[in-house]
């Protein structure tokens, strides 16, 4: 029975309209002058344009100056001062939000010893020190020598004082160490010198330890970050390039979240692991150094690491704007707050944008001229640099509520790497809303060219559906979106401005995680005038408003079809023959992809028909829930038992060389050289079944809800 149609009568519509008004009434704080909301409230383009015009580049610049004035390592007094700054801004009587609170977790962090600084030295056979590496970066601008500047170190690397012959191990990948062994080089008891890139920080130590290496040094090679430039007159403060003494700090923990409370929020009552039994820490002492020291090291090297683990309090700050019609649907917008030193680019460029966007929205809210349809949650995460800790603890604590109610997560961490073009990453359904927003905003200093038109000049792909479009990157685990997409299955995105890849081969902006990432660096080299910061604020703000205010959620699930079809074709072309040899058929996967494409196309047609009519509010709600919940259908917590938090069968880490479904690619890679009927080939079959079930479940979620 098509029971939905029964609700289309006058009485039903009136009752639902009344329900919407009641929900909106209780969502609005007493004393608000916001007009009574309509259950059909939709995106107001005039208000959107007004918000775009009010986002002020000079205010973003002043935000950044204040945020990056002092080093603010996670849990430090300066970090806590920024917690209070955010609370003050979000509680402001003229531009604040409905509510703002800080929540604190007790988490395990890692710090170098002040009493015994970490040290790297070249020593003679008799132990005499012949050369010592810098223990701090050169104080070039007066900002690198303060007492709150943490010395370079590898967070979570164990203490120890290994000594041995130095071996250059390139990027420290498993292949790099195997090549050294194949050349007859004895690795047992050596110190491996590696450069950043190629594999994760912690993986370098893990790979080294497998081959008996006693300690690891990591440096940033000027070829990877400075386009080969390394002299003092070619680097900061004379250009944006990394100076010779610059050292990249970072977390070497393999997973994310608090190491002692995996899958549990780090509250006082939570069970904690014994620190001595925690997995994911580097197995051997590890220390980062600058490239000026890396080129001098040779022969016998002594590495002295005195890092220590400490339980510290770290806070998240949440600012809430309650929705007028659907207060139980949340659009989240976040960035982390903590930095390794001053952190002007990472992360304060993102927080400067966040504060300006929340100021403009808060001002409209306090004036009573606007309230979103859905609730907006602004978040400032703590201790991200140590392994996405604040955001992960939040997703653990509010797992059920977020899975039931979160529409999408917008991440703006580093808002401006450089000032050439937009760069966006996300799951396929968010592509359309980012495109729509970027088409309406002028690109900085380009004479009327839109951000979208400028973006397509730098990063583009050929879509079988849309033709030439900007490329939307996929999400790994590099920022706070990771727990939202991989653990909770919430449609997520990361938005930033970046550089022209044709003009630099830098893997990231050169002063990343160093003491040279300062306000002056941004103001002079990265974004003079802050027009790119403003462009990111407008783009992310427009996406936020479209997700929070649109009657129909602007998530295009059909765009997942392109990804699935691309993955399927890669599997057929690169793995099909191999799978046939082991009597494994891809036909069920082909059928599942076709079912998804059909269901997504049919849903698009239903939405289009409703948009042209006067929709029943309940029908709108049901369709929006289908759009919101699609991403959750791709989760399988048992798909990757060797991985922590990774449950998304489409976006889990892929170690296999074929650009297809990660579980299938990884399983085939491991099974490649095993015998017929081996457990490895059984795992291939299991991964294929997991995929088929996930895609069929996704298709079922998109079909009319009455057609069970």
UniProtKB/TrEMBL annotation:
Gene from which the chain derives: NAALADL1
Q: Which residues cross the membrane?
A: 7-28
| Subcellular localization, as worded in the UniProt entry | Apical cell membrane
GO CC field: apical plasma membrane
Output the GO biological process annotations, alphabetical, semicolon-separated: proteolysis
* Membrane topology category: Single-pass type II membrane protein
Name of the protein: Aminopeptidase NAALADL1
All copies of the PA domain together span: 164-250
SUPFAM superfamilies named among the record's database cross-references: PA domain, Transferrin receptor-like dimerisation domain, Zn-dependent exopeptidases
Question: Sorted alphabetically, which PANTHER family does this protein's record hold?
Answer: AMINOPEPTIDASE NAALADL1 (PTHR10404:SF50), N-ACETYLATED-ALPHA-LINKED ACIDIC DIPEPTIDASE (PTHR10404)
Sequence ranges assigned to domain Peptidase M28 in this UniProt record: 316-524
Keywords, A to Z, come to: Aminopeptidase, Calcium, Disulfide bond, Glycoprotein, Hydrolase, Membrane, Metal-binding, Metalloprotease, Protease, Signal-anchor, Transmembrane, Transmembrane helix, Zinc
InterPro entries for this protein: PA_dom_sf (IPR046450), PA_domain (IPR003137), Peptidase_M28 (IPR007484), Peptidase_M28B (IPR039373), TFR-like_dimer_dom (IPR007365), TFR-like_dimer_dom_sf (IPR036757)
What task does this protein carry out? Aminopeptidase with broad substrate specificity. Has lower activity with substrates that have Asp or Glu in the P2' position, or Pro in the P3' position. Lacks activity with substrates that have both Pro in the P3' position and Asp or Glu in the P2' position. Lacks carboxypeptidase activity. Lacks dipeptidyl-peptidase IV type activity.
Give the required cofactors.
Zn(2+)
Q: Name one Pfam family in it.
A: Peptidase_M28
Q: Which family does it belong to?
A: Belongs to the peptidase M28 family. M28B subfamily.
- Which residue numbers delimit the Transferrin receptor-like dimerisation domain? 584-703
Region forming the signal peptide: none
Q: Which GO terms describe its molecular function?
A: aminopeptidase activity; metal ion binding; metallopeptidase activity
């Amino acid at each position: 029975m098509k029971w939905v149609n029964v609700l289309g009568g006058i009485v039903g519509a009136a009752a639902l309209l009344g329900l919407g008004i009641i929900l909106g009434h209780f969502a609005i704080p007493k004393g608000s002058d916001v007009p009574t909301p309509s259950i059909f409230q939709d995106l107001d383009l005039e208000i959107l344009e007004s918000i775009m015009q009010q986002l002020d580049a000079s205010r973003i610049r002043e935000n950044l100056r204040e945020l990056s004035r002092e080093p603010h390592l996670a849990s430090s007094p300066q970090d806590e001062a920024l917690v209070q700054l955010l609370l003050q801004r979000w509680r402001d009587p003229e531009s604040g939000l409905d509510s703002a609170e800080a929540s604190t977790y007790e988490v395990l962090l890692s710090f170098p010893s002040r009493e015994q600084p970490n040290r790297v030295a070249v020593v003679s056979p008799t132990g005499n020190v012949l050369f010592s590496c810098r223990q701090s970066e050169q104080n070039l601008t007066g900002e690198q020598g303060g007492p709150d500047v943490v010395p370079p170190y590898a967070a979570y690397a164990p203490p120890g004082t290994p000594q041995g012959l130095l071996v250059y191990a390139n990027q420290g990948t498993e292949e790099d160490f195997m090549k050294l062994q194949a050349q007859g080089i004895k690795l047992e008891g050596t110190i491996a010198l590696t450069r950043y890139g190629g594999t994760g920080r912690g993986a370098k130590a893990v790979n080294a330890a497998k081959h008996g290496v006693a300690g690891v040094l990591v440096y940033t090679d000027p070829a990877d970050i400075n386009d080969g430039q390394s002299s003092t007159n070619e680097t900061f403060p004379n250009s944006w390039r990394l100076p010779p003494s610059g050292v990249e700090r970072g977390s070497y923990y393999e997973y994310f979240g608090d190491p002692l409370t995996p899958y549990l929020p780090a509250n006082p009552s939570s069970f904690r692991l014994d620190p001595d039994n925690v997995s994911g820490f580097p197995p051997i002492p590890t220390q980062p150094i600058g490239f000026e020291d890396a080129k001098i090291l040779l022969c016998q090297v002594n590495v002295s690491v005195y890092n220590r683990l400490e339980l510290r309090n770290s806070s998240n700050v949440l600012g809430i704007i309650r929705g007028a019609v659907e207060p139980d649907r949340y659009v989240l917008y976040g960035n982390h707050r903590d930095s390794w030193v001053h952190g002007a680019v990472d992360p304060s460029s993102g927080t400067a944008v966040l504060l300006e966007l929340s100021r403009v929205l808060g001002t409209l809210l306090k004036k009573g001229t606007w309230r979103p349809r859905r609730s907006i949650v602004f978040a400032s995460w703590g201790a991200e640099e140590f392994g996405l800790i604040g955001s992960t603890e939040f997703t653990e604590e509010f797992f059920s509520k977020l899975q039931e109610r979160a529409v999408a997560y917008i991440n703006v961490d580093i808002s401006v790497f450089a000032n050439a073009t937009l760069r966006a990453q996300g799951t396929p359904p968010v592509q359309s809303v980012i495109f729509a927003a970027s088409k309406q905003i002028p690109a900085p200093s380009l004479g009327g060219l839109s951000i979208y038109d400028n973006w397509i000049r730098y990063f583009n792909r050929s879509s079988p559906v849309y033709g030439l479009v900007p490329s939307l990157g996929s999400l790994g685990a590099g920022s706070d979106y990771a727990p939202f997409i991989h653990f909770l299955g919430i449609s997520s995105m990361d938005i930033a401005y970046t550089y022209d890849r044709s003009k630099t081969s830098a893997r990231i902006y050169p002063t990343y995680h160093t003491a040279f990432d300062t306000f002056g660096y941004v103001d002079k080299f990265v974004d003079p005038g802050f027009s790119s910061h403003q462009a990111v604020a407008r783009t992310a703000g427009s996406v936020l408003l479209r997700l929070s205010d649109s009657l129909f959620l602007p998530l295009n699930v059909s765009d997942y079809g392109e990804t699935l079809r691309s993955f399927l074709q890669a599997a057929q072309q690169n793995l099909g023959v191999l799978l046939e040899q082991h009597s494994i058929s891809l036909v069920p996967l082909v059928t599942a992809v076709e079912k998804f494409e059909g269901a997504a196309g049919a849903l698009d047609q239903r939405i289009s028909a409703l948009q042209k009519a006067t929709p029943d509010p309940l029908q709108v709600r049901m369709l929006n829930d289908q759009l919101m919940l699609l991403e959750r259908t791709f989760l399988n917590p048992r798909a990757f038992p060797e991985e922590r938090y990774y449950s998304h069968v489409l976006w889990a880490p892929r170690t296999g060389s074929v650009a297809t479904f990660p579980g299938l690619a990884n399983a085939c890679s491991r099974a490649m050289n095993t015998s017929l009927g081996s457990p490895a080939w059984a795992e291939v079959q299991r991964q294929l079944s997991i995929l088929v079930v996930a895609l069929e479940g996704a298709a079922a979620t998109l079909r009319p809800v009455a057609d069970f």
